[in-house]
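Input (structure):
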């Protein structure tokens, strides 16, 4: 239904989990949360989700926040990430995890981020021990000045790819590439709480959040900014974070307890059962 349902290969992962053929991404009848946020799972704009259609969210706290803001029709399904872990329990697993994968906060196609990448790279170099991989969003990766800020400090710089759409293959393996990278690193870090940190914590990475949080040029006040993140998750900020607290937060924020069965997902998404040959 909405193009964001197919970003990062989400619809493909879920249809594979449901035992459906992988020829064409399936049309989800509703709106699937595509990334972690600390509002209600979706952008604050009311026009993002058409009234009357289901909202498939990752966790109960997002459902409750949505209800408090007058939104209805929530279904708890957990993050697509947990279905990928179900499908790929051994993908990228290595007995010798090394170094840190660092995710700088990024912009998107309609809004850029202001911040000093060179200064952030210096701070990363001062804090981290061992090899560092910096993973940039595709827009920042396409900027040679931003890449150079990290490469010049000796960091490996990668990109998981574009987020894709229903019809192209750009984002089809985004989460799989991310899973492989996270499982090869001992630690995951960023200058803001985000999906990647919870993904990393869920597969055994140590977590850190430090550095200039950077800002969207038109950051929405509804989110509450850095002060709200620090108030809600003080235990997840710093150059070192308690592994138990990070793992517990990942379980909660990614909604592991709400993983649905294939039959339940097919019913909620409006998918007919199709048997694979």
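Output (sequence):
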């Amino acid at each position: 239904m909405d193009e964001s349902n197919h970003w990062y290969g989400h619809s493909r992962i879920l249809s594979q989990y449901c035992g459906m053929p992988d020829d064409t991404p399936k049309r989800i009848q509703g709106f699937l949360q595509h990334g972690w946020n600390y509002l209600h799972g979706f952008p604050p704009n009311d026009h993002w989700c058409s009234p009357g259609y289901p909202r498939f969210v990752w966790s109960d706290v997002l459902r409750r926040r949505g209800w408090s803001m007058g939104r209805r029709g929530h279904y708890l399904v957990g993050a697509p990430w947990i279905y990928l872990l179900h499908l790929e329990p051994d993908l990228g697993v290595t007995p010798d995890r090394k170094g840190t994968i660092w995710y700088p906060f990024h912009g998107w196609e309609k809004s850029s981020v202001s911040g000093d990448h060179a200064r952030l790279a210096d701070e990363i170099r001062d804090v981290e021990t061992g090899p560092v991989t910096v993973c940039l969003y595709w827009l920042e990766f396409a900027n040679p000045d931003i890449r150079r800020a990290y490469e010049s400090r000796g960091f490996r710089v990668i990109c998981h790819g574009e987020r894709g759409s229903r019809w192209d293959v750009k984002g089809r393996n985004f989460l799989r590439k991310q899973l492989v990278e996270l499982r090869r690193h001992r630690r995951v870090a960023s200058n803001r709480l985000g999906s990647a940190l919870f993904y990393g914590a869920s597969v055994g990475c140590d977590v850190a959040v430090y550095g200039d949080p950077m800002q969207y040029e038109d950051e929405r006040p509804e989110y509450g900014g850095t002060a709200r993140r620090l108030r809600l998750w003080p235990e997840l900020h710093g150059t070192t974070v308690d592994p138990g607290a990070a793992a517990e937060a990942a379980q909660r924020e990614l909604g592991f307890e709400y993983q649905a069965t294939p039959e339940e997902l097919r019913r909620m998404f409006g998918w007919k059962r199709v048997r694979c040959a």
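Notes: The chain is about 35% helix and 10% strand. The mean pLDDT is 87.
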